[in-house]
Amino acid sequence: MHILHVVGARPNFMKAAPVIAAFREYGVRQTLVHTGQHYDAFMSDIFFQQLGIPEPDFNLAVGAGSHAAQTAEIMSRFEPVVIAANPDLVVVYGDVNSTLSAALVCAKLRIPVGHVEAGLRSFDRDMPEEINRILTDQLADLLFTPSEDGDLNLLREGIDGQKIYRVGNVMIDTLVKLLPAAKRVTRADDVFESPYALVTLHRPSNVDDPATLDSVIRTLDTLSREIRIVFPVHPRTRKQLESLRGWTPGRNIQLIDPVGYLEFLALQLHAVLVVTDSGGIQEETTYLGVPCLTVRNNTERPVTTTIGTNVLVGQDRETLLSEARRVLSGRAKKGGIPPLWDGRAAHRIAQIALCAYVERVGVPFEVARAGR
Ligand code: UD1
Ligand code: UDP
User: Fold this and answer.
1) What is the mean pLDDT of the chain?
2) Of 356, 285, 279, nearest to 112 (Cα)?
3) Ligand 1 touching residue 9 (CB < 6 A)
4) Nearest CA residue ID for atom 12, ligand 1
């Protein structure tokens, strides 16, 4: 059996790492394609090193572009690669443009697609990711969901229940594995020495419109009078901040470059509070039991609010400040860990994919294990 994985952007890497490792245990032949959607060393290379992901066999080097340009570029560069590789299954991750582009190419070539993190829905089509999620799930043959809401969303959209497998959360597999190493992370500066709130922002809805970004960061200015803020700045946000006139971060706001996975996990572990609009960070804080305020009106990860520590604060300044004060005064919402977020999701994916392959091709399990 030959599996081809497609990754492209930061949140893909921590999802693909455990899946690649699980298939390796079964001796499956694997090919890794990096679309190059993210390309800075601290948005890409560092994750390959820290997460033990093998060097990509192909880097399509697409870089940045409008949605249409980026999607089209990935499709036209990926098509000859996947035709030549002729894999039995292509595995795509999450909801970025690389995910949909690869799934669409494969669907037209009738190459089976597995979607890891299927079924998530924010029900907000202003998010480009929501379009990517809906379309990728329509195209996929194996849909691996992290939680029950994912199964229900897919069934509601008419997807055959036989294609849906609730496996748990692969991002948490990586977290569970690397938590001991993250606990050993030290920093040359004094970041861990006194209490801080950790902030990340990169959603176009928060950072692309100058007036909205201005309002969000002025709220952070106010919060920084009550607690120090550590803010690793995403490249999209960095560009927007540079063009925002009249704002310089106050003394209690530490803007830093994006950091590696281990450093960021350590920053979450030591934080009093996380303020974010990231998808994955809502999940990681839930697992770690760290209070999380999400600067969005909705989430495609509802279990982080119903079971976990996540609270949606929208873009309202007063809500963010009052929820932050609740945490700072020791009244943070308590949370638990959702079912199947246990560090074994990738193994379940590998077993299901191998069984599906055997069913389709009709060879004994041992032959599938040995590769073709
Ligand atoms: C992408 C995903 C988003 C995900 C985020 C994770 C889509 C539609 N969006 O958003 O779902 O949450 O990644 O981080 O797929 N840039 C750099 N260096 C890099 C990467 C990007 O400078 O290594 C700059 C580029 O100039 C680009 C901008 O950041 O214009 C945005 O990059 P892009 O990949 O288009 O979208 P993200 O905002 O990163
Ligand atoms: N992350 C990281 N360094 C950072 C910020 C985030 O390693 O400076 C990790 C974070 O721990 C999580 C993932 O990146 O595993 C989330 O990715 P991101 O927020 O870029 O995308 P999203 O999840 O919103 O799609």
Assistant:
1) 95
2) 356
3) yes
4) 278
Which has the closest alpha carbon to 211: 258, 243, 249?
A: 243
CB of 64 shorter than 6 A to ligand 1:
yes
The pLDDT of residue 369: 44
Position 364 pLDDT exceeds 60: no
Average pLDDT over every residue of 147-151 = 98
Q: Is 202 a catalytic residue?
A: yes
Q: How far is the CA of 194 from the centre of ligand 2 (A)?
A: 23
Catalytic residue among 5, 34, 115, 202: 202
CA distance 159 to 163: 8
Structurally, what CATH architecture does the domain formed by 187-328 represent?
Answer: 3-Layer(aba) Sandwich (3.40)
CA distance 99 to 349: 17
The mean per-residue pLDDT over the stretch 282-296 comes to 98
Taking CA 115 as the corner, what is the angle to CA 370 and CA 24, rounded to the nearest 5 degrees?
25
List, by residue range, all CATH 3.40.50.2000 domains of the chain. Answer: 2-168+340-370, 187-328
pLDDT-above-70 percentage for the chain: 97
- Chain segment 334-357, per-residue pLDDT in tens: 999 999 999 999 999 999 999 998
The CATH code that applies to domain 2-168+340-370 is 3.40.50.2000
Closest C-alpha to ligand 1, atom 3:
96
Kindly give the distance from the C-alpha atom of residue 365 to the centroid of ligand 2, in angstroms, as a whole number: 37
Rounded distance from Cα 1 to ligand 1 centre (Å):
33
pLDDT at residue 160 above 70? yes
Query: Ligand 1, atom 26: nearest CA belongs to which residue?
Result: 64
Q: How far apart are CA 62 and CA 59, in angstroms?
A: 8
CA of 200 to the centre of ligand 2 (A): 8
Contact call for residues 99 and 33 (beta carbons, < 8 A): no
